[in-house]
Amino acid sequence: MPKKKPKPVTAERTVDSSKVEARQSGIHATGCFAACDIRKGEKVIEYVGPLITKAESERECENENVYIFTLNDQYDINGNVPWNPARFINHSCDPNCESENDDEHIWILATRDIKAGEELAYNYGFDLGEYQDYPCNCGSPKCVGYMVAAEFFDHARKYRESQKKEAVVV
Ligand SMILES: [Zn+2]
């Protein structure tokens, strides 16, 4: 039997956001902070939004909507809606959370114990397409300067070095 796909849900949903608190961030604009102590492996919050087709998703990405999340081979989630507090979670090169996708839901999980008040972050997992347009200000000593998936860190570091050299010549 073919795997059952979720029906496109566009209706507003209320998520349990009791473990997060959105406020001004030192990384970028508004961030999400732990509202309580969170244990490693714990679900922090669900990432929600209307399901959109791959064609719609492509258009949104062209419009630089950075809140698009791949859900499965049929749908993506457009997280750029007010009822998705997880959209405020910033990217970091050395994050304390990760996203987990079970084909029907996207969860933000803690990858280590997190103390109340700590800013939550995960790696957005961007590929190399135009990452130079997305500088990272996560402030971690491990920051590679751009918002890319961990597998591309070496690439980003080399690019940053090449930019520095150019700046010196000029
Ligand atoms: Zn960074």
How would you describe this structure to a colleague?
The chain has 2 domains: 1-124, Beta Complex (Beta-clip-like); 128-170, no CATH class. The protein is 15% helix and 24% strand. The chain has 2 helices and 10 strands; from the N terminus they run ββββαββββββα. The chain has helices spanning 54-62, 153-169; strands at residues 20-24, 30-34, 43-47, 51-53, 68-70, 75-78, 90-91, 97-101, 106-110, 119-122. The strands form 3 sheets. A 4-stranded mixed β-sheet has the order 1-2-10-7, with no helix packed on it. It is globular. The protein starts with 19 loop residues before the first strand and ends with a helix. 31% of the residues are buried.
Concise summary:
The chain is an alpha+beta fold.
Offer a few descriptive terms.
10 strands; single chain; Beta-clip-like; 170 residues; 2 domains; alpha+beta; four-stranded mixed sheet; 24% strand; binds zinc ion
Helical region count? 2
Bound molecules: zinc ion
Extract low-pLDDT stretches: none
- Taking all Cα atoms into account, the compactness measure Rg is 17 Å
Hey, roughly how much beta strand do the residues contain?
15-25%
Series of secondary-structure elements, N-terminal to C-terminal: EEEEHEEEEEEH
How many domains in all? 2
CATH class of the largest domain: Mainly Beta
| CATH fourth-tier homologous superfamily of the largest domain | SET domain
Q: Based on helices, strands and strand pairing, what is the structural class? A: alpha+beta
Mean of pLDDT: 90
